[in-house]
Amino acid sequence: MRIVGLTGGIGSGKSTVSNLFKAHGIPVVDADVVARNVLKKGKVDRPRLGQIVFSDPDKRQLLNRLLAPYISSGIFLEALNLWMKGCKIIVLDVPLLFEAKMDKWTKPIIVVWVDSQTQLQRLMARDGTTEEEAKNKINAQMSLDLKRTKADIVIDNTGSLEDLNVRFSEENLVIE
Ligand code: ATP
């Protein structure tokens, strides 16, 4: 089974690319969904947790470190189930693929990249936040330009959704 890694920065278009894979019938394991399920099982008050870590990078880092093994094992189990069903190719959509060192499981690694101005504009439009809030969220992550250097494939999502569709098809990612 081929395990493709899909990552990028906040608002760079990971979910949009993951939807393209799904539209081609390729299953996607979404780390955010796995993380939510982990917290649900532990009956954690997520809005409260969000408040605690939102404005405190140290606490956010600690939370990420504490959750990482649970999220990795949740992703691993989902991947195992898909393998048992006979899937030949699956995609792991993991925002912190490099930070959590899950990149070693995946080949190729796709980084969805946009220029920083576009990232900021799209994030503000999607979340209805101020420029400052959006910048804080972007700066809390490993830089998208650094992630780009670690990729096997960079999908540039600075253009329109149509451009993205063309780039996606050009990479022939869904052909085994
Ligand atoms: P997050 O890390 O926050 O989950 P993400 O990387 O999954 O973000 P998306 O949610 O896919 O990013 O995209 C961010 C926003 O930009 C969304 O509102 C999406 O609809 C929009 N968007 C994505 N790609 C394009 C594009 N090529 N043209 C215009 N808008 C786009």
Q: In a few lines, what is going on in this structure?
A:
This is Dephospho-CoA kinase. Helices cover 54% and strands 14% of the residues. It is α/β, with parallel strands linked by helices and 176 residues long.
List the helices and strands and how they pair.
Elements: E1 2-8, H1 14-23, E2 28-30, H2 31-41, H3 46-54, H4 57-84, E3 89-93, E4 109-113, H5 116-127, H6 131-139, H7 144-149, E5 153-156, H8 161-170
Parallel strand pairs: 1-3, 1-4, 2-3, 4-5
The structure holds adenosine-5'-triphosphate.
Adenosine-5'-triphosphate binds at residues 8, 10-16, 95, 122, 126, 157, 160-161, 164.
Structural commentary:
The model has no long low-confidence stretch (mean pLDDT 93). The protein is α/β, with parallel strands linked by helices. The protein starts with a strand and ends in a 6-residue tail after the last helix. The protein is globular and about 45 Å long. The chain has one domain: P-loop containing nucleotide triphosphate hydrolases (Rossmann fold). Helix 2 crosses helix 4 (57-84) and helix 5 (116-127) packs across helix 6 (131-139). Helix content is 54%, strand content 14%. It binds adenosine-5'-triphosphate (ATP).
